[in-house]
Amino acid sequence: MKKKRPRKRKRKTFFKRRSTQGTIAAVFVIFLSVLFYYIFISQPTNPDTFHFRAVIVDQLGGGHIKAQPNQTFIQAAEEILNASGFSVDYIDGANVTVDFYKDLPSLEYGIIILRLHSATSAEGTREISLFTSELFEENKHNERGLAAVAFVPYEEEDPIYFGVLPLFVRDSMNGKFENTIVIMTGCDGLSEPQMAEAFIARGAKAYLGWNELVTAPYTDYATTRLLQHLMAEKKSMRTAVEDTKREVGGDPTYPNSTLSFYPDDAGDHIIPNATDHNAIQSVDLQQHTSGMKQPFRNPSPLTLQSIATAVLTWHPTGVAWAFHSNRSTRISKPFKESTI
User: Fold this and answer.
1) Please, how many CA atoms are within 13 Å of residue 118, restricted to the half-sphere of its CB?
2) Which pLDDT does position 120 carry in this prediction?
3) Are 234 and 244 in contact (CB under 8 A)?
4) Is the confidence at residue 333, as pLDDT, over 60?
5) What is the pLDDT of residue 340?
6) Contact at 8 Å (CB) between 108 and 46?
7) N or C: where does the chain have the smaller number of CB atoms within 10 Å of the terminal CB?
8) Half-sphere exposure (CA, 13 Å, Cβ side) for 100?
9) Which residues pair with 259 in a beta bridge?
């Protein structure tokens, strides 16, 4: 008697089909992702596009325990920008969050002034991280795979805040900058090129910053002079930076800190005005900066001792988490201290 041959199991075929369908779906998703990147992200910025809107992102102004407000600087900057035909938005410290940074390119600003705390990694790439005023919460933001970094306290027992890395600017922001000028007034803005490169890759025209630590009163005064040269006097990027350095000298506390710009080929760029620049009058800086000179020549002990220390560890989702050393063994060494 012949043995009946066992029936072939269909389950393997089912899994094979399922696997094939899954592969096709994965390839399709990758294709759409590449297409989206090509259409919306990788396309070069139109060289003729420029928005006559400016924003002062004043994370230093409040919303956290190391606030260093300076309304005199804000008023001077706004007046210089308004005189050149720019509308000006002001973002106070409490509203400087990860989501705010995420949407920044889509807000269509021609000039962005980043008045904020920052820190650099103590080793490795030494890339800069920009502070927010958003308190750190475990598992927050990681569900979207955002390249965010959380800060340990400015000083012991202080709260922890989120910050953003160059990878966030490059890969996690929405939209493109359109020939935007980014002025980073905080510490170490150009100590390494990664953050500048990220902004340029995202469509910015130029990025200006300091190569070392700076005190808040000093950089406020220097930025006011820089804006005067760039906006009212219509000087090129290179000339405005050189004139500013000659006028304000070095930071009394950090004399080796130097203002510069990136990339070098932006040196001849002149920021356009929304109105006839011949009719623009120079802003009375004596009125606005008289209150700034004394503080930056004689910084207060609090200004000199304001410290931004951060540690970084990567989560598989692409989120950087930070923990105290007694909570995790996955911590890198602390970030270098930073006055602002």
Assistant:
1) 31
2) 76
3) no
4) no
5) 76
6) no
7) N
8) 21
9) 210
Q: Tally Cβ neighbours within 10 Å of residue 255.
A: 10
Judge whether 211 and 258 are in contact, CB under 8 Å.
Answer: yes
**Residue 157: band (very low, low, confident or very high) from pLDDT cuts 50, 70, 90:** confident
DSSP collapsed to 3 states, 83-130: HCCCEEEEEEHHHCCHHHHHHHHHHCCCEEEEECCEEECCCCCCCEEE
Give the separation between CA 88 and CA 226, rounded to whole angstroms. Answer: 17
**CATH, range 53-321:** 3.40.50.1460
Q: Tell me which DSSP letter residue 317 carries.
A: T
**194 CB-near residues (< 8 Å, 6+ apart):** 125, 127, 128, 166
In 160-214, DSSP assigns E strands to: 161-164, 181-184, 206-210
Q: What is the pLDDT of residues 92-142, one digit of tens each?
A: 999 999 999 999 999 999 999 999 998 776 556 678 889 999 988 887 887
| Helices 237-248 and 216-227: angle between axes, nearest 10 degrees | 130
Computed from CA positions of residues 76, 81, 83, 84, in that sequence, does the dihedral angle turn out positive or negative? positive
pLDDT of the residue at 17: 36
Tell me, what's the pLDDT at 301?
Answer: 29
For the chain, the domains span 53-321
- Chain centroid to CA 266: 19
